[in-house]
Amino acid sequence: NQLAIYQLPKSMQPFFYKNMDYIVKFSVRPDQRRNEDPTEATKHFIDLEKFGDSAAWKMPLQWQKAVSLYTRDTLIKYGYVPYYIIVMKENLSRAFRNKQADSILFYATDLAHYIGDALVPLHTTINYDGQLTNQKGLHALWESVVPELELSTYDLSSHHRARYLSKPDEAIWNAVRSGFVLLDDVFKQEKEASTLFNDSTKYRIQIRNGREVKYYTSAFAKEYSRRLGNTINTQLTRTSELIADFWYTCWVDAGKPALGSLLKNGFSKEERKNCKLKYKAYRNNQLISKNWLIAKKNAGGGE
Fold this sequence. Notes:
The chain is mainly α.
């Protein structure tokens, strides 16, 4: 989310920059809702195998056409993240149109989360945790363990500037496909890395809620990461770029409302200066070295 803010135009950046802490802090809110709302979980993924051969390339882009083809119940059961992202896009566009600061922040933050999920390969398959191939725990390994371990080696910079999406539904489906085509390698590289480890070096045991839970060791995670190459880094970059594109598109669709009036205390010279400094650090891939990456600080710096 933080990276996406630096890709916004100057007319949007001050509002998002000033609310950056909120946007990063509450980026996990949709996951937290899963514990309370039984309808939340399937908004985060899509089990493409359940919709037939080559579903990622054959499913309708629009929700109503998909409902006609598969039924609403089937879509709700097996996941509908690309369709829900369009719902959230409309919510954010309406919030911009009404110039409701709280709603803009709420929907922008949640929309970013679902876009992030859509680009995670394991959010596009029924074998979402490797549970069907004796690779249980793979989801956290790819999505959390490896990124936290390797973040300081990633290139988080981008020269991307937010662009208008004339076909947002097509854009999000292209993103889903970009993750889906990586699946074979996600599973294959875990299998191949496993040949170099035994159970005692591949896993560590932790007590969680009174029971033993297996986690991948840092040594295994590093070997898995080495085999994947820059795959995760690339998806992270794509995610930030698509988030910026969606935020910008929602703002344009709302008529490009002036956001300055939504800043209670304006945007001071000092804040403007800090924004420029961090933007420069972002372009030079120095956010981590300067300790300006909020997500890393909030996570305590990872392992």
